[in-house]
Specification:
InterPro entries: Ig-like_dom (IPR007110), Ig-like_dom_sf (IPR036179), Ig-like_fold (IPR013783), Ig/MHC_CS (IPR003006), Ig_C1-set (IPR003597), MHC_class-I_related (IPR050208), MHC_I-like_Ag-recog (IPR011161), MHC_I-like_Ag-recog_sf (IPR037055). By secondary structure, this protein is an alpha+beta fold. 24% of the residues lie in helices and 41% in strands. The strands form three sheets. Strands 1-2-3-4-5 form a five-stranded antiparallel beta sheet, covered by helices on one side. Strands 6, 7, 10, 11 and 12 form a five-stranded antiparallel beta sheet that branches.
């Protein structure tokens, strides 16, 4: 899905200054825009005194400088124009970064669904912990529920962590439950999130390492060879 964003930030609105003529307002309008035909987001800034525009900045302009828009402000010295141009360029970078952050979050919320899995952790010879972890999701609202024998219960020894940022614009969360070793098959993790077409139901699936599989194959071969030797 193509992403279109137009953000309007109004800063310094209605800063009142008392002069001999009364009160006047100084207004700053910052706009950051992203479109498919733009290589980078476009940033513009305009400054008004009352209803008169006095300054403007456009990141797509050749000079990328703050420009005067009224005669009386042109008398400002060169160091003034250097300063306001530097500030505008810094504002441009800041607003572009904010827009990219919003774009990332939006794309994650509209794009690929979250991923989730259940892992097993040994606590002692008799106890184990199953951890249900969901990641790559946005927005933050998510539900992780442990079921025992298919039923939702108030399970003791259940631990949750708060939803945390993953560092890439997405979020992560996990819920863990303790149990006696050998009863893992009774537990199911239910994951619900608006990015999923329907809830996920996850169980821990034992996985054998290649070393374990190789050992089993060797034992089977040895047993087969022994049987053949006895028959012969």
């Amino acid at each position: 899905m193509e992403f279109f964003v137009l953000s309007l930030l109004l800063l310094g609105t209605l800063i009142l200054t008392e002069t001999w003529a009364g009160f006047h307002s100084l207004k700053y309008f910052y706009t950051t825009m992203s479109l498919p035909e733009l290589i980078e987001p476009r940033f513009t800034a305009v400054v008004y005194v009352d209803d008169q525009q006095i300054l403007s900045f456009d990141s797509d302009s050749a000079s990328q400088s703050m420009e005067p828009r009224t005669q009386w402000i042109k008398v400002e010295p060169p160091d003034y124009w250097e300063r306001v141009t530097r500030i505008s360029r810094e504002d441009s970078q800041c607003n572009r970064m904010c827009l990219q952050k919003v774009s990332t979050n939006y794309n994650h919320s509209e794009g690929d669904p979250l991923s989730a899995r259940v892992t097993r952790h040994t606590r002692s010879d008799l106890e184990v912990t199953l951890r249900c972890r969901a990641q790559d999701f946005y927005p933050a609202e998510i539900s992780l529920t442990w079921l025992r024998d298919g039923e939702e219960e108030q399970l003791q020894d259940t631990e949750f962590i708060e939803t945390r940022p993953a560092g890439d614009g997405t979020l992560q969360k996990w819920a863990a439950v303790e149990m006696l070793s050998g009863s893992e098959h009774r537990y199911t993790c239910q994951v619900q999130h608006e990015g999923l077409p329907e809830p996920l139901f996850l169980k821990w699936e034992p996985q054998f390492s290649s070393i374990e599989l190789s050992a089993e194959v060797i034992i089977d071969l040895l047993l087969t060879a022994a049987i053949i030797a006895v028959v012969v």
